[in-house]
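Same chain as my last thread, 390 residues:
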Amino acid sequence: MSRETQNANNDHFVDTQPFDPWDKEELTPEQEKYFLASQWKLIWWRLKRHRLAVVSGLILLVMYVSILFVEFLSPYAQETRNSDFIHHPPQSIHLFHDGSFIGPFTYGTDFSVDMETLKPTYIDDPQKIDRLRFFCSGDPYRFWGLFEASLHLVCPAEGGTMFVFGTDRLGRDVLSRMIYGARISLTIGLMGIAVSFVLGVLIGGAAGYFGGWVDSVAQRLIEVIRSLPEIPLWMALSAALPVTWSPILIYFGITIILGLIDWTGLARAVRSKLLALREEDYALAARLMGAKPKRIIARHLLPNFASHLIASVTLSIPNMILGETALSFLGLGLRAPITSWGVLLNEAQNINAVAVYPWLMIPVVPVIIVVLAFNFLGDGLRDAADPYKN
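reply #2:
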């Protein structure tokens, strides 16, 4: 059979039109949307498939938004003392009484003292029904220290009580103090990671891009800092803060200390990435066109692993929160009248008090929730930013 006859018989197997991979007639709408998506949109799509990371992100979003309105959300003011209800146990919120729905309320309590143990005892009195009030006028406060206000989301009944998490040794509501403490404990992580991020990017970027003696000095500095035991170093630096400083200065001092110690890991990650990326063709082209090192690092190298930086920052914030909590728990961090979760846990150091009043340990619960949420969100961001994962 001749070659012309073979070609004629095979014509129906051959498409003479040039192949265009971007031909819209060949792509489904879903494929076109995927191929034209930016890198950040791809990361967002991958992150949405990580259900645990999304839930953790929503929890953190709610908690960080709530710190803007802690005065409004807390049922009592931060330093309100209820001297008649010292070490009051947690009260339950009820909806039904004798089978009838009457809305959220608490039962009143009768106070007595155990003459053998001298322990205060509070017994619910079913005859005293204290209905909760919403969007009500309660303890006065200064909103963000700017103006006087007294509006609260929920308040106890007139003459009643609402101690959902009990009270401390001075009769202060533990729930309200936890809400106030969230503002300090959550923001100290953000401020500390800001200091750590700047130092890590600057020192790690210089070491990775320039190499040579700059890299050697940076690596020796990192090795010295990492060789020091972290907790004793925190304790030593915190103890060096003057006792006469105001609570605000102590707050910023603890933040800077946490940032100065935690930057080494990020610096090494930035260095290792820049050592590889600085040899790429686009970096060489930028140098040949006369771009300065600062511009090459900021505009060409760092954006190529910005997703990795975001994941690293997300995983570092819990360390900052735990650091502040540990220092305040040991009495070397923030001090009264500043309220943080670590300061609240400082009152639970006495094991005898915890055995008798276990609700004093409740402030550890939000610490655990926030740390787990940041870890799950960081894991999700790391998986979503990995270009080799589908």
